[in-house]
Write a structure and sequence with these properties.
The chain is α/β, with parallel strands linked by helices and 248 residues long. It contains nine helices and eight strands. The protein has two domains: 160 residues, HAD superfamily/HAD-like (Rossmann fold); 68 residues, Orthogonal Bundle (DNA polymerase, domain 1). Helix content is 42%, strand content 11%. The strands form two sheets. It has a six-stranded parallel sheet, sandwiched between helices. It has a two-stranded antiparallel sheet with strand order 4-5. Helix 8 links the parallel strand 6 and strand 7. The radius of gyration is 18 Å and the shape is globular.
Length: 248
């Protein structure tokens, strides 16, 4: 398969588990809300079964697995309670992964368009990015608030690509009959569900083994142990050497 003809145009980051070590915080927020109902799980079960879902799909799955009814009223109440619990927890501090600030700053200073495509809520994402002084680097944020179907459905990434092209006309006119072309756009993900979503959207995926072992991230085109292993030059090199050419 011919290689070496694809230039890096933009980078889309998943959020939780990629830029910030916030999955334990989401887990604690779910526990705060669900423990009184007898529906809390161990962190191992959370990682195995529910990570990668947005809050809506996670709650649906938890109740379905327990054989418990979930009325629309209870569903909305739990979503709001979980968001409030998460914000309380984050107010005590959140830690970015090693290399997160440096990579985002390097890409931003190189004028590379950046986006977030996450199953978290917009308020949660912006709160943390603002705390880390990284919010201005991202011209596009697509969250659970913006889509009907969460990952592994590709909608989150499809919307992120469309928004990047709308925000950055200089990306060019490389468009398909289905809209903005994903060619040259790299996704950084950490979960099988997220990788599946990005691949289904036609995107090139670099996985970071923060949350899952590398062997479970095999659907990505490239995998690194940690975010600090990535740089602008390495992303360019990986895309050029591992992405198929337009004629392949």
């Amino acid at each position: 398969m011919p290689q070496g003809t694809v230039d890096l145009k933009a980078v889309i980051f998943d959020f939780d588990g990629v830029l910030v070590d916030s999955e334990p915080l989401h887990y604690q927020a779910f526990c705060d809300v669900l423990t009184p109902m007898g529906l809390a799980h161990s962190y191992d079960v959370y990682l195995e079964r529910y990570i990668g879902f947005d809050d809506r799909d996670a709650l649906r799955a938890i109740f379905q697995d327990a054989g418990r009814p979930l009325t629309p009223e209870l569903f909305e109440h739990l979503l709001q309670a979980k968001e409030a619990a998460f914000q309380r927890i984050v107010s005590h501090g959140v830690v970015p992964f090693a290399g997160a600030r440096e990579l985002v700053k390097e890409l931003y200073e190189a004028r590379l368009p950046l986006a977030i495509a996450s199953g978290a809520k917009t308020t949660e994402i912006c709160l943390i990015l603002r705390t880390l002084n990284l919010l201005e680097a991202f011209s596009v944020i697509v969250s659970a608030d913006d889509v009907q179907a969460g990952k592994p459905h590709p909608e989150t990434y499809q919307r992120a690509v469309e928004a990047l092209y709308a925000a950055h006309p200089a990306l060019g006119h490389d468009a398909t009959s289905n809209g903005a072309s994903p060619r040259g756009v790299v996704v950084v993900e950490d979960t099988p569900a997220g990788i599946q979503a990005a691949r289904a959207a036609g995107l090139f995926v670099v996985a970071v083994a923060h949350t899952y072992p590398a062997g479970e991230l095999h659907q990505a085109q490239w995998t690194v142990p940690r975010l600090s292993d990535l740089s602008l030059d390495r992303l360019r090199h990986v895309l050029k050497t591992h992405a198929p050419s337009p004629l392949s």
